[in-house]
Amino acid sequence: MPRRRKPAPGCGPLIPPLSETARPLRQQIFERVRAAGQIARVQLAKELSVSPASVTTITSELIEAGYLEEVRTAREAEGGRGRPPTALGVRAGAHHVAGIKLSDREHTAVIVDFAGNLVADEAIARVPGAMDLAAILDATETLLNRICAKAGIVRADLSAVGLGVPGFVDSPGGIVHWSPVLSTRRVPLAAAATARFGLPVHIDNDANLVTLAELWFGAGRTLSDFAVVTIEHGLGMGFVINHRLYRGAQGLGMELGHTKVQLDGALCRCGQRGCLEAYVADYALVREAQTALNLTHRETQSVGILLESLYDHAKAGNAAARSIFHRAGRYLALGLSNVVNLFDPELIILSGERMRYDYLYAKETLSEMTGMCLNTGRPAPRIETHAWGDLLWAHGAAALALQEVTAGLLGPAREMAAQ
Amino acid sequence: MPRRRKPAPGCGPLIPPLSETARPLRQQIFERVRAAGQIARVQLAKELSVSPASVTTITSELIEAGYLEEVRTAREAEGGRGRPPTALGVRAGAHHVAGIKLSDREHTAVIVDFAGNLVADEAIARVPGAMDLAAILDATETLLNRICAKAGIVRADLSAVGLGVPGFVDSPGGIVHWSPVLSTRRVPLAAAATARFGLPVHIDNDANLVTLAELWFGAGRTLSDFAVVTIEHGLGMGFVINHRLYRGAQGLGMELGHTKVQLDGALCRCGQRGCLEAYVADYALVREAQTALNLTHRETQSVGILLESLYDHAKAGNAAARSIFHRAGRYLALGLSNVVNLFDPELIILSGERMRYDYLYAKETLSEMTGMCLNTGRPAPRIETHAWGDLLWAHGAAALALQEVTAGLLGPAREMAAQ
Fold first, then answer.
1. Under an 8 A CB cutoff, do B252 and A376 touch?
2. Of B22, B53, B254, Cβ closest to residue A49
3. What is the average pLDDT score of chain A?
4. Helix or strand or coil: residue B23?
5. Considering chain B, what percentage of its residues have pLDDT values greater than 90?
6. Does B346 touch chain A (CB under 8 A)?
7. So what's the pLDDT on residue A129?
8. Does any CB of chain A come closer than 8 Å to the CB of residue B16?
9. Which residues in chain A have Cβ-Cβ distances shorter than 8 Å to B170?
10. A231, A233, B85, B410: which could form a disulfide with B72 (CB 3.0–4.6 Å)?
11. Residues contacting B278, CB < 8 A, separation 6+
């Protein structure tokens, strides 16, 4: 079999994002090793339905290129030094990336190695409100410098940066169409940050980052397909198909929060009517909370305090407060049932700050959801509520950076160049 | 490079359906050649982002196995006989399959060759109403024998049969959960038909068949991702991602007709409330038609005649009749906008018998749809209305059979066995 020339690690330009499904075998093998932590070649061949010979050839290339290494399993370590190790793992030191999450309260960052191990984390508080591009870049650079110092590396040691922003983001195009942290629309944030930091910067929105965090560090280690639904200020969704984040056919899909659940329904902050999030998200609850709590317009509190107060009243038996949460829960059930009827996932992960309001995944809510899923004779999908928080989102941003580094090193454009 | 043993064509058992996205390169190459009709090796390498060397190796294997052949392009034919042909095509005679569509009015069938060319078609009328499994098998066998005779082949010459039934079908599992043409639920139709005919039989539902027909013989020849929405007695959807029909993570998704568009809304024939199809499909219109046309319960006509009459009245200016079509159009717009907001397709194809009612794709309807799609700054996706009819569905059933034959010959299980 002809030997391919060894690709030079980490020195080429990043290629455009890959089609979600047309990954070459080399990349699939690398990603499966990374997800597994450590895995034997024979198991890789089985899981990917390819010949053991192909796995041996490709993993030899990846070891030679410095991306994978042979590791001793626990059993082999016990059994003495007689036989060579059979399992493979990612060579953690091959690359480092940063993940940064911009939010209304604080900006958070992590640095992880090529195997996804956390090297350092950092957060800086901020004054809430929208910023212009220059202020965002200043804040991000300050945070980036601080976390590099904490990790004991220089910025040039990073192979890429993942940057997460809430709102409506065209990740492949690098454009933020709208975000609560940005004062203008259609901002080419990825290009601006890449120019400023001298590093490849990739951007994505909240829900996709949480999904990437699950894919790289959570549920994705054992499952190939699952959905993530997040509720914070808005309602977002991410979907993993065959170990890859699916973004819709043209890169701007999965906007579950803006699917319509009522013709001419409640007003959404996007300007349209009847969006799911106009019944479930913060601002939907706030609209009715003022009525339920008998607040005048002048008494309006911050959203967080108002919702906490509403929740306390509901728990104390206030019927109006309860009915607000009850209705939001029913609409969430409707939205989840639509996810099931369209995507038929095995698992739906609920995440995001508003999940602290347990009405959203109360037994009645899940039972309503089941009642709206087409009766297939199978049990309804599992629903799990996972931890959330800005650090998780920063991890998702780091996963985005790792994904792009991997695609750049192992993707099809590189493969052709190496022939 | 080690030579693989040539796989014996058409003599092995069919393997279970592949994961939609984990296709080996061999299968991807074959499918791309088939979709293109004829294509040069260098173009294949470009489109699939793999090395020309890999394409040359794999296409040589496929030619040797008798699945592909070298063909002379029009330009080469003009230019004389000096150089060998550079383009590849599918060897049409390598396999034949039958596609059969069962419906309420008639059963239709086609036989196509391995390249998808129509060899014969046939239809038999039937008495409307649900049948039991034995009657379905009798009718299908009669039709199968008749079309084989017409094509001048015997049943054993067929490599597989695709069988399309309206209703709720688990295609990978071979089970019809519910169908208007079957008098019982949860019928293992694929296994029963396989046993009866002595041929591998694969089943699927209406919307998926129309989508497969588009994928193999229509839009799929030029597009990698698109949606198909069908309206007949119900509302169905099919979605093609990266040249493959996507069925949901566990094989039972894409039930757009049963996504909920109103909490506690109109009653659907599935027994639940607020399903999209309960506002758009035949029976939804019929419920209101009796009111609009001042019909008593005793005057009830057949659905087809009633809807034709309603349509005539609407065209003649009957305001009540118009409002029925107008509302159905608005709900269809809502459903299509949800498809756009979730899947972000470049093209949505509308198909099915009810598309003759042009209110469903009137300018106002499409404009309402655009108004409910998240504003991304890009134009709304193209909406096209394509031909429909039982023969198209039978073609889709044949495409299903071809897909399964191809997967059985070229899929990963076969690849491993051939090592």
1. yes
2. B22
3. 84
4. coil
5. 49
6. yes
7. 83
8. no
9. 376
10. B85
11. B265, B266, B267, B268, B269, B284
Question: In this structure, what DSSP letter does residue B94 have?
Answer: G
Q: What is the ipTM metric for this complex?
A: 0.84
Positive/negative CA dihedral, A132, B379, B245, B403? negative
| Closest CB to B250 among A262, A330, A344 | A344
Counting one residue from A and one from B, how many pairs have CB atoms under 8 Å apart?
191
Read off the pLDDT of residues B216-248 as tens digits, 9 standing for 90 and up: 888 888 888 899 998 877 899 999 988 889 888
Indicate if B222-388 has the same CATH topology as B96-211+391-407: yes
Q: Taking CB atoms and an 8 Å cutoff, what residues of chain A touch B331?
A: 263
Q: Which CATH number fits domain B96-211+391-407: 3.30.200.20, 3.30.420.40, 3.10.120.10, 3.40.30.10?
A: 3.30.420.40
Of B58, B239, B244, B261, which to mutate for an interface test with A (greatest number of A Cβ within 10 Å)?
B261
- pLDDT, tens only, B374-407: 887 778 899 998 877 778 889 999 999 999 998 8
The distance of A256 to chain B (nearest Cα, Å) reads 6
- In the block, which residue shows the tokens 């939001």? A328
Closest residue on chain A to B275 (Cα): A372
For residue A224, is pLDDT > 60? Answer: yes
The confidence score (pLDDT) of residue B17 equals 29
Q: What is the mean pLDDT of chain B?
A: 84
Q: Are B241 and A21 in contact (CB < 8 Å)?
A: yes
* pLDDT given at position A34: 87
**Both tokens of residue B390?**
């039982």
Give the CA dihedral A39, A40, A41, A42, nearest 10 degrees. -120
Most confident range, picked from A124-138, A366-380, B143-157: B143-157
Contact A24 B177 (CB under 8 A): no
| Cβ–Cβ gap A250/B346 under 8 Å | yes
Dihedral angle sign, alpha carbons of residues B57, B44, B113, B162:
positive
Residue A121 has pLDDT above 50, yes or no: yes
Sequence-ordered list of residues with C-beta below 8 angstroms from that of B87, at least 6 positions apart, any chain: B38, B39, B40, B70, B71, B72, B73, B76
Nearest CA in chain B to A261: B261
Structure tokens at A110: 């992590």
Domains of chain A: which residue ranges? 94-211+391-409, 222-388
Report CB contact under 8 Å: A342, B250: no
